[in-house]
Amino acid sequence: MAVEMASRSQVLVEEKSGVRILTLNRPKQLNALSFQMISRLLQLCLAYEEDPSVKLVILKGLGRAFCAGGDVAAVVRDIKQGNWRLGANYFSDEYILNYVMATYSKPQVSILNGIVMGGGAGVSVHGRFRIATENTVFAMPETALGLFPDIGASYFLSRLPGFFGEYVGLTGARLDGAEMLTCGLATHFVPSKRLTALEADLCRVGSSDPTFASTILDAYTQKPRLKQQSAYRRLDVIDRCFSRRTVEEIISALEREATQEADGWISATILSLKKASPASLKISLRSIREGRLQGVGQCLIREYRMVCHVLKGEISKDFVEGCRAILVDKDKNPKWEPRRLEDMKDSMVEKYFTRVEEEGEWEDLKLPARKNLPAIAISKL
Amino acid sequence: MSDNRALQRVNILVNHILQSSPTSSSNLSLTREICLQYSPPELNESCVFDVKEMRKLLDGHDVVDRDWIYGLMTQSNLFNRKERGGKIFVSPDYNQTMEQQREITMKRIWYLLENGVFQGWLTESGPEAELRKLALLEVCGIYDHSVSIKVGVHFFLWGNAVKFFGTKRHHEKWLKSTEDYVVKGCFAMTELGHGSNVRGIETVTTYDPTTEEFVISTPCESAQKYWIGGAANHATHTIVFSQLHINGTNQGVHAFIAQIRDQDGNICPNIRIADCGHKIGLNGVDNGRIWFDNLRIPRENLLNAVADVSSDGKYVSAIKDPDQRFGAFMAPLTSGRVTIASSAIYSAKVGLATAIRYSLSRRAFSVTANGPEVLLLDYPSHQRRLLPLLAKTYAMSFAANELKMIYVKRTPETNKAIHVVSSGFKAVLTWHNMRTLQECREAVGGQGIKTENLVGQLKGEFDVQTTFEGDNNVLMQQVSKALFAEYVSCKKRNKPFKGLGLEHMNGSRPVLPTQLTSSTLRCSQFQTNVFCLRERDLLEQFTSEIAQLQGRGESREISFLQSHQLAEDLGKAFTEKAILQTILDAEAKLPAGSVKDVLGLVRSMYALISLEEDPSLLRYGYLSRENVGDVRREVSKLCGELRPHALALVTSFGIPDSFLSPIAFNWVEANAWSSV
């Protein structure tokens, strides 16, 4: 068994017969995806796809996080230096990686034993198998940062049951492993103490037919109890409110529910919506709604247009402000602009979905050609 | 040949082996070499224009709200979600009994109601609110015609009758409760003995001043109300159309509100209701028959916007002429023809998107020995079957949008134009849909027979459109009659033509070139000239034939009947020219670019296929035999030029994958043993 370890590398690679174990290795930054990590992951994934000896890819994180997201701090630095195009390149590579994973012809097993946020979801949820544990904490916190759930989230969130995806995407609500499994974001739940044994078993897989990995995973998986106060138990309320036409209508539907019964969960939900960036909320809702009707490739192309508008900051600069308030100054008091939902007009929302008019070449995201994909390679949710 | 047979035999054997041991991977790779594999058309087809831009043009308005309601449907279990070939589809289960289909249709409507879809449908007004409502209704119809018809009857027939025929007292009492479905309305106009001829209905209403009530009765079996959507199971209230007899004088057709069921769904006294039974489609709509046995309703229930009866029984109306009164009365009902025309085009889009996607992934026969089989849409004959229908659907999409625009911006002055245009468009667009669905059904071969694949089923679901809200043939005659009246009135008063697109008649008669080159044929000016020439000449011929007949002492009515052939040609010429104008207008508004270029090809195809299909051009000599041959060759050329855009053109319809059917996608996997 050949083992290749490059300890200084941000992505560790182990080769175990037909299996490749990739470990995100930036534990101090909770494995936030740097530009180098994305490039390396993409390069490895494409190489493994061509290599007939590789049957299965395992992705995990070192430390208490699987991956806490993209390296937005670096992107904001670029924007401040007047270099939003550098940030755009980062997202372009990240989305291409997401697309390759979503259309991967070999099974990817992601072991989500810790924090999974934003970009972390992007490198796992699109893959065939996602293993949650009792340590898993999942969230799409972008609307609180002045961004929107990207990395193909408009594809997978919109395919969750009912309107749970709108709830998760707009409020940034945290989900535990049991909730991830129940709503479909995770495919299996394995207690963390059994992960080592599971990995060892997976390394014996000798075929890229996902049914082999599936059989092994099924032997380890458990059915955890959904906690009593889980948002998923409120799916009826979520469906009634988050199905509404606009963000404003969603909030007033929640407020109506709140008047009927005093409920901590509803008021917390309303509060998180009121604290989020109005611009982010509106473009996120529309993105999820469009995503529901589109393929994963179209979703990523649209999200790339959106993120370029976010980076360019002509309609709103909430991304820079959100990162300042949450990540840099940590005063948790962002000054959003537009300040109120009603100030974020439909025409402004519309702009995020149009091509970016730019001096010099700006192009839509170019996805690599993927040949002869079976339907199961694409639809995983 | 013998090699091929041997290969096939091996293939069959391998499949036998594989069924018993599906995990043997070495054999799997063997089958991949031999078996047909689905290849998504997206992989091989290119797209030269922005599909999103094209979709915006086609949908015309409220794209975000359309996506919202598409999503509402896909996310609910009420809409019969199912997985086929790794994709989710939503489509009604047409194998359910009529009773089940009716109940699930009602439940789907409750769900849409709870999610605020119908908010403001009657209580808000203005073009924007109206367009939004039309967009949402269109999407309902893409999911299932029964849903849109049941919603349409409630809001557009019952609701709009209250709104437009009624006055403040009716609005206050009924509009909000209708919007919230506290009352469920239906619309009792058609009778067993009278359909398109509303003025001939036999239901009679009299007034009893002692109790200040109207008394409605069904005097004979032919006066039973028939095909009343919603009446068989769900409706609590109805609009009743009836002759109004006051002191022995028949004041003509009037509309009343009557309750037919209580809130618990029990049929009210003096009302009898029977079912219309199972239909060839649209079984989610509970069509019923109603008899009125001297039903008494309060005087206030007369919808009195046009005429009223005082408490002591005097008939009062601001419009003295009964003909005009009837016209004023019926004008608001145009909305039915507007919604039917646009929904017919969306149905044709579902058919074409399915058939064209299938023809870009299904192969049949090789043209060379041992060569690969040929993709269906690479056969020129298959292109000729589907692509002209695609071009027509595009042109008619713009026509439907234009009709909606003139409808939502209507004024008393535009009533006549709306009546004429909506009559022509409703007839031509619904006929086009039926023809398209039949062609698509045949074009996907046996798969079209499967209900799940939708294309065949839609024929039954949409067939009624050619009959209801005015029989298509009657409507086309109305178009010709209106054109006749316009012509006579302009000539009599020696005034220039204005309106209905007849302004070209004021100029000189267009002269067509004798030689038709490819570039002439594709020139919008040439196309406009041929369509104008045909309309102008037919209108002149029609009026002169009527004049001749009248000169021989025939009545105007008899003369119209005698000239039915010219009337038919003229109605068609008028409508096709009006459609051409809408796509030309849409094209003209676009900046130079790929969308405009492709739309130009589509428009030329529409124009030329309309010419190819119309024998009147040869019959009346507008084109020579040689010209007609040139047109035919150009159609064939255009087929080849549109072929590379076929996928992008149907993707631009904006209909989500889940609203099409399994054969539009991976039909191999959808039918695989593993998914049995």
TrEMBL record, chain A:
Superkingdom per UniProt: Eukaryota
The keyword Hydrolase is annotated on this UniProt entry: yes
Enzyme nomenclature, EC number: 3.1.2.4
Domain Enoyl-CoA hydratase/isomerase: 19-353
Known pathway: Amino-acid degradation; L-valine degradation
Reactions performed catalytically: 3-hydroxy-2-methylpropanoyl-CoA + H2O = 3-hydroxy-2-methylpropanoate + CoA + H(+)
Gene3D superfamilies per UniProt: 2-enoyl-CoA Hydratase, Chain A, domain 1 (3.90.226.10)
Ribosomal protein among keywords: no
Record keywords, A-Z: Hydrolase
Alphabetized GO MF terms: hydrolase activity
Protein purpose: Hydrolyzes 3-hydroxyisobutyryl-CoA (HIBYL-CoA), a saline catabolite. Has high activity toward isobutyryl-CoA. Could be an isobutyryl-CoA dehydrogenase that functions in valine catabolism.
Entry-linked NCBIfam families: PRK05617.1
Similarity field: Belongs to the enoyl-CoA hydratase/isomerase family.
Protein name: 3-hydroxyisobutyryl-CoA hydrolase
Automatic annotation (TrEMBL), chain B:
Swiss-Prot/TrEMBL cofactor(s): FAD
Domain Acyl-CoA oxidase/dehydrogenase middle: start-end pairs: 186-294
Chain ranges of the Acyl-CoA oxidase C-alpha1 domain: 333-483
Recorded superkingdom: Eukaryota
Alphabetical UniProt keywords: FAD, Flavoprotein, Oxidoreductase
Family label: Belongs to the acyl-CoA oxidase family.
Protein name (database record): Acyl-coenzyme A oxidase
Organism: Camelina sativa
Gene behind this protein: LOC104754789
